[in-house]
From TrEMBL:
Record keyword Ubl conjugation present: no
Organism per entry: Actinoallomurus bryophytorum
Domain of life: Bacteria
Protein's UniProt name: SPW repeat-containing protein
Segments passing through the bilayer: 35-56, 68-84, 91-108, 120-142
InterPro entries: SPW
Keywords attached to this entry: Membrane, Transmembrane, Transmembrane helix
Taxonomy of the source species: Bacteria, Bacillati, Actinomycetota, Actinomycetes, Streptosporangiales
Nucleotide-binding is among the record's keywords: no
Domain SPW repeat-containing integral membrane residues, every copy: 37-135
Amino acid sequence: MADISRHSSGMTDHPDAAEMRERYARMTGGRKVEIMEGLVMLTGLYLAISPWVVHFSSTYPNMMVNDLVLGLALAAIGWGMVLFPERALGLGWMLIPVGIWLIISPWVATANHSAPKGIIWSNAVVGALACALGAVTAAMSLKSRGSRGAAKGTRTL
């Protein structure tokens, strides 16, 4: 038989084990982004079903499509934050223009450039919430990038 040396196959001897442990702890331990993930997903899901909740799905089809598509997009961003927290947190800034569009869309996307109060209130509240969530996630992303750069001895913008 050939002489096969016995090497330990454990990860403790791996040269990148400490870095992998630290990255895993940073991703899972004490994640402040968990609340943001849920709020972004819930905001998107409410927006997607709002045409049926506020009862304008048949009377304002443009707004129905607008809210359904943007709601699913917000929910997808929230789901991306769940699956890929370090990467998708940087997408949080995208919530700000979506929120601004939601606030002005009842006057822009309707045929006669006016909408009932229910649509206006629903979109204004969801748009303001999306803007606030976008600002918070963008700040969290910048903060996490800054702390990672400081930990490595480099500065990132």
